[in-house]
Amino acid sequence: MKQLKRLSKSILFFLTIVLFFSCSEKDKVTIISVKNPLNVERSFETVELTKSLLKVEDLSTIGIRNTETKKLELTQTVDNDGDGVLDIILFQPQIKANSEVTFKIVTVTEAEKPTAPELCYSRFVPERTDDYTWENNKVAFRVYGPTAQKMIEDNVRGGTLSSGVDAWLKRVEYPVINKWYKETTEGTGSYHKDTGEGLDDFHVGVSRGVGGIAAKVDTTYYYSKNYTKWRTITTGPLRTSFYLEYENWDAAGNTIKESRVISLDLGQNFSKFNISLEGVKNISAGLTLHEKDGKVFGNKEKGWVSYWQPHADSELGTAIIASKDYFVDFETYDSKGKDLSNAYAHLNVTNNQVVYYAGFGWKKSGQFNTKQDWENHLNAFSERINNPLEISLK
Using the 8-state DSSP alphabet, how is residue 161 labeled? Predict the structure, then answer.
């Protein structure tokens, strides 16, 4: 009888342990902490969470709920490598100065997910040779492809030979890319004229535009030509990103291999350039000086160089910013050659990678009224990229 009682107790104990661990696994909750170490409020900064961090197999059913407000955050999932499997989930938390916010990872249906307009957008533009163009609610850009290059090489009118980055000056928050191209190609309007939304009156030529790269050998800068391949990675409410590949190019006998992923997030004036390079240890990202009637200024310690210039009936600031891991120095390069004068940020290439941000602020858009406003923004942006939000799993 005693043996039977001991056996019953053992079985009961075993079942209790099994039930405990079963409940623990079933009721396990994943909490993400986002900490702001700076003495300023943070917003419009994108947090990336991976499957491995969240310990999930499928990001398509994941929601992120603020533990204080109980509200679901606006999210966007991204397949970075194009293999059909989602790799990261994005959201933009609002975090007060020197504070920490926690978020609960929950399972949601598609109908439960918050939605927002797709303001971060990019696409290949075959109707205008082969531009690749991207925008968000603040700014827009474009680069040029192989067809535009071949037209120049074959003396066909309308081509463009440049690896510089064009700036589209928009002053509305809604998307303009498709509208402007449609009006121009159909002859019902032109993106070179401002009818209240902005315009493209930013000349690039062979310059670096806003963020094109060059390799400096002795006192000479060498450039690549137009991109040769493209792939859209994502568009959405929080980010657009895409991949570009370039034909190997020469810098005084050195062969350089280049590809890049460019991304632009909601609320930002700067595109992020993540460039893969072989054959070079340092690279320079440039800003065209146009008529040389503006002012080049920078801050080596904070990692930025800028050009503020008169622009038609307004003013325009362009800039390159990089973290302390990459930024070395800056230089004003003045040349008598057409479009060859640029302000350059000199950057380290680390493990065949360089990361920097390039963008602009147009006075007529209402964002920056003075050069000082623009400079304040550059210093604040630099502080953020050198002190990123701290993400941890609880």
Answer: -
